[in-house]
Write a structure and sequence with these properties.
four-stranded antiparallel beta sheet, Alpha-Beta Plaits, 2 helices, globular, alpha+beta, about 80 residues, single chain
Length: about 80
Amino acid sequence: MTIYVGNIPYSMKETEIQKLFSDFGNVVSVKVITDKFTKRSKGYAFVEMEDDSQAQSAIDALNGSEVQGRSLKVSKANPRKEPK
């Protein structure tokens, strides 16, 4: 399952996000979304977890939790829409 993680601190690295989610299960991948010109974080990321029930536990536990003064928005990611 892929998880959307919004409102992350701009300074937060992929390794820190992986550590946060690994408490709930095996993290397959973490991708912080960056601006293609400035290379700065856009303040959100996607986390892929191996097991759906562990991913749901992470969503339930981390949604609304505070990290570095910011309240995380954690939910199941919507499938990417293909361009027409």
